[in-house]
Design goal:
Structural class: mainly alpha
Helix content: 25-40%
Number of domains: 1
Shape: globular
Largest sheet: 2 strands, antiparallel
Radius of gyration: 17 Å
Length: 216
């Protein structure tokens, strides 16, 4: 597995969130709480996945994190087995190839739609946070094929660690289909970043989850 995917030649200064000890402590504490919840719900989720679509319980995918470094992101499986091989058959409703969106993606299973709507499918990502590949709050981690379409300035969104939540999740989530809007939000997050701002986004995320809005 390659460490990076054609990152831009010019390196920008290290973003303060990357070296913040306070942010890392919050990440570790949040990951411990998140993984504790994951352990509690893992068995009923696993049973539901197997009854609906027999196959692996977990799904992993190569994503690009800080400075384009690749890592394996973990989720509870919400699509049919072999869904990645069928992606070319599904229409991309996004406005560019840098992201993939389809509101009625036929590859998503019945239990998968519930897991996505409630964001339970993302619980295993707390492991990615615990080991330092992700943060509780950050940017949306792109797939390897998405970054092949990046222009140089798009790489600026990867100057911070990817997050389980962030600006786009709390300000539109799945309704956002324009990649440039996501880039703008990610760069705004970097500009506004502080520990207080992270906590504010976490609280906004909890509100979004409780209302189950804008997810599919």
């Amino acid at each position: 597995m390659d460490d990076t995917y054609a990152a831009p030649k010019a390196k920008l200064p290290i973003h303060p969130s990357v070296i913040s000890k306070a942010k890392r402590i919050i990440d570790i504490l949040g990951a411990v709480v998140g993984l504790s919840i994951t352990v509690v719900v893992a068995i009923p989720i696993a049973i539901a996945i197997q009854l609906d679509s027999p196959g692996p319980i977990f799904y992993c995918q190569i994503r690009c994190g800080l400075n384009g470094r690749s890592f394996r992101i973990w989720k509870f499986r919400s699509m049919s087995v072999g869904a990645d091989r069928l992606k070319h058959l599904v229409k991309n409703e996004a406005k560019s190839d840098q992201i993939f969106k389809n509101e009625n993606d036929p590859r998503i299973t019945r239990i998968g739609r519930f897991l996505r709507r409630t964001s339970l499918d993302e619980l295993p990502q707390f492991w990615n946070v615990l080991v330092g590949e992700m943060s509780l709050v950050g940017t949306r981690p792109p797939t390897a094929d998405e970054v092949t379409h990046y222009s140089n300035y798009h790489w600026e969104r990867l100057n911070v660690k990817p997050g389980i939540t962030g600006e786009w999740q709390t300000n539109g989530r799945s309704r956002i289909k324009d990649f440039e809007d996501i880039v703008h939000m990610d760069l705004e997050y970097q500009r506004k970043w502080s520990i207080t701002y992270d906590i504010n986004l976490i609280l906004k995320t909890l509100k979004v989850l409780l209302t189950k809005s804008d997810a599919y």
